[in-house]
Amino acid sequence: ATTSSALGAESQGTIIVEGKSYPTDQWTNATPSILSHISKGLYTRENHPLYITRKLIESQFPGPTYGNYTEKNPVVTTAQNFDVLGFPLDHPGRSRTDTYYVNEKTVLRTHTSAHQAEYFRRMAEENAKEDGYTVAADVYRRDAIDRSHYPVFHQMEGARLWKRTPGMTASESAARILEDVKKLPTHDVEVEDPNPVTHPERNPLQADYHSQEEVDAVVAHLKRNLELLVVRIFSEASKASQDSGSPPEPLKIRWIEGYFPFTSPSYELEVFWQGDWLEVVGCGVIKQELLNNSGVPDRIGWAFGLGLERIAMLLFEIPDIRLFWSQDSRFLSQFRNDKIVRFQPFSKHPECYKDVAFWLSSAATSGTGASAAGGAISFHDNDMMEIVRECAKDIVEDVKLVDEFVHPKTGRKSLCYRINYRSLEHTLTNKEVNVVHEQVRQTLVESRPGERTM
Ligand code: FA5
Ligand code: MG
């Protein structure tokens, strides 16, 4: 039996999303509470911090060069989300432990890159005028529970292409891109590692299609744009913190090598924030096969993808990612589209820790070792997260594995998770927490952890 009755997503063998019905199968793992987030469209609500953040980023990528778009429906095919982008079949991102499947061939997009090929195809049309775009959308990932992770978050993707006309040499193409780099503003923020080494095993030069000179020009344009974006965001953020009386933190940024199946070379931009390096954007030179397969074989260009919540948390100093979903007017009334203001936290309600321990069936493996997509029997951390999400909704702040024990005789394994309950909006009563915690325990028992993939 593979129906997730405990998680309740697959009543009658169909799921309805945005008015469309999809047959379910043994891949289905999208839960009712996840599906309930679709169509909330936080990034389209004026005066919502995600909307303000989106508009600020869009203003860095203006027309007529860039078009600014949104994609409402998160249901995409596995081809769009993975295959077209060159994800290998054994890529962990494809696993049911990491991705919400509607059914075997259909997922809730895990990133805005699922739309890249369509946008490139649009740019190939005869009357297309734009050479680039941004697209904002909600994305879905099975993931840890803590103050910076939520299974629904928002991404913004951007891309810029240059046409190589017939007969144009690689150096002419590079020179023309460098012309565009020269037109960009400069900034005076120190970049700690402006040119990290990229490794040919992971990030080879696409030598069949690109010269080093051209790649250097595209990368220079990409990096400058993203540095300018972060500089802009931080100048807005430090204005807001000065207005609220606290001294601004000096901005420190650095580039590191990244890896994505659809770009080479690839990079990530990190910002030093509250004592640590925080990854804010992944990017790179678009793989030429992807452009060739999307109707634009005559172009070269870059793409990036960033997390809107991550940027908004920096911009407004929002301490918990759940707040973005809050309907509480004490939260919503603080934001206005015409000004970036520091978020004033309302009083924090007390937390309540509870542990839950359970045995896995003897065959099970657990922890970080993700099972093959749809395959081996296992219990994954994310299965636990999902159960807690379904039962506790937004009154859970974080969940951690605190103990693992293997019985010396039977070899059976037990796990102990600590659940930190806390509401952002009211003080939880003991009674309320006990009811939810009991529900978590019941659901765990019913799901027979480790006996089958959830
Ligand atoms: C991607 O999703 C790629 N599609 C990005 C990309 C686009 C690369 C185009 C190259 C070209 P990644 O999984 O690293 O990559 O996520 C991109 C950004 O989304 C991260 O830098 C981070 O800002 C944000 N992000 C990722 N996971 C989370 C999360 N669980 N919660 C909040 N933000 C997240
Ligand atoms: Mg990343």
Name a few traits of the molecule.
454 residues; BirA Bifunctional Protein, domain 2; Alpha-Beta Plaits; 2 domains; seven-stranded mixed β-sheet; three-stranded antiparallel β-sheet; 11 helices; disordered N terminus; binds adenosine-5'-[phenylalaninyl-phosphate]; binds magnesium ion
Summarize the structure.
Residues 347-454 form the FDX-ACB domain. The chain has 454 residues and is of the alpha+beta class.
Structural notes for this entry:
This protein is α+β, with helices and mostly antiparallel strands. The chain has 2 domains: 37-74 and 109-332, BirA Bifunctional Protein, domain 2 (2-Layer Sandwich), CATH 3.30.930.10; 352-446, Alpha-Beta Plaits. The protein has 11 helices and 17 strands. It has a 7-stranded mixed sheet with strand order 3-7-8-12-11-10-9, with helices on both faces. It has a 3-stranded antiparallel sheet with strand order 4-6-5. A hairpin with a 5-residue loop joins strand 9 and strand 10 (263-273). Helix 5 (170-183) runs parallel beside helix 6, helix 6 (212-243) packs parallel to helix 8 (308-316) and helix 10 (381-392) crosses helix 11. The radius of gyration is 23 Å and the shape is globular. The N and C termini lie close together (11 Å).
